[in-house]
Amino acid sequence: MNEPIPFLDVVGVNSDVREELDIAWKAVLQHGRFVGGPEVGMFEEQFASYCEASECVGVGNGTDALELILTALSIGAGDEVIVPANTFAATAEAVCSAGARPRFVDVEPGTLLIDPDAADAAVNSRTAAIVGVHLFGQMIDVPRVAAVARRHSLALLEDAAQAHGARFAGRRAGSVGTAAAFSFYPGKNLGALGDAGAVVTHDRSVADRVRRLANHGSAPGNRHVHRERGRNSRLDSIQAAALSAKLPMLDDDNRRRSALMEAYAALLPASCAPVAVSPEAQSAHHLAVVRTAQRERAVSALDSAGIGWGVHYPVPCHLQPAFSAFREQLPTVEKAAEQILSLPISPTLGQADVARICEALRGVTS
Ligand SMILES: *Cc1c(COP(=O)(O)O)cnc(C)c1O
């Protein structure tokens, strides 16, 4: 049998920058400022500029980034926040942790991203924000969702955990909403060597409040004065150094993902159709998601060929036990959840790997 193809090869992803990582690690060990070292500010500046936004605050992880944005905007108890049901549980968790109530809405049948009309219909007097989740690497339909937010005076949060470097109509993920949450979990397009995240925004006052909340509510310049009750969610110096070492590769990695996706589109059998990408979107292709009516047969073919796969996500958020208080009937996402299948798309893969994967699928699903 051929070499197995892993769903994601995190060791391989980091091996290209091994030398830079070693240098960065040693520098932090040398100066000893593991928290709040100069690496943090440096990465924040680089990432804000990469996202074509003005502010970036490094935080502990992507879930905290979402929660901190909501709290910084004073969204909490008594408020509702519109969340697409097709997302990782963290999006809805953050809304609950901030004290607000998630209001799940359905997605568009082609892209499986938030349906702007469904979001519009879900607005009521308690609605405070919409979370646009740029899922699978593709940004939401920014003009349409932003128009809904504007019409009802709502904040628009970007959950950009899967969309580092993506664009919609030329605009970068992280630059289109009130504020954006990024995750640098090791498997994301830009991954740290552990948990890490960031808030990106054009709004200086949101950035300042996130920074304060994430550091025990301390006033900048006087850490013994606690302006408000905060918490601890900071980006470590070591992680910031690793992220600065990897950021210059992100565009190349995303181009590699894009080439793999083109190969998939050309070689997949008709019974496995990639999820649609809007002509205005430049996806970061975090995940290669296809739809198939024969998922069980497809995954057993992949298993026997030694090919990794995933499902993102098999149970939509509104049907998760954890969110049983927020049930809805959302037919588009419920149907999609039975058919979606994520194929390997790590930048470490080559065209030959994609050809092998498509060959394995051709046997069973035609
Ligand atoms: C990964 C992810 C998160 C959470 O990020 P963490 O850093 O793991 O907390 C949130 N939303 C989406 C869509 C994600 O993929």
From TrEMBL:
GO molecular function (one): transaminase activity
Q: Which residues cross the membrane?
A: none
Q: Which Pfam families does the entry mention?
A: DegT_DnrJ_EryC1
Enzyme class, spelled out:
transferase
Q: What positions belong to coiled-coil segments?
A: none
Keyword Transferase listed? The answer is: yes
E.C. numbers: 2.6.1.-
Q: Which domain of life is it from?
A: Bacteria
Task: Tell me what this protein is called.
Answer: DegT/DnrJ/EryC1/StrS family aminotransferase
Keywords of the record: Aminotransferase, Pyridoxal phosphate, Transferase
Organism, by scientific name, is Saccharopolyspora ipomoeae
Name the family the entry cites.
Answer: Belongs to the DegT/DnrJ/EryC1 family.
Against Gene3D superfamilies, the record matches this protein to: Aspartate Aminotransferase, domain 1 (3.90.1150.10), Type I PLP-dependent aspartate aminotransferase-like (Major domain) (3.40.640.10)
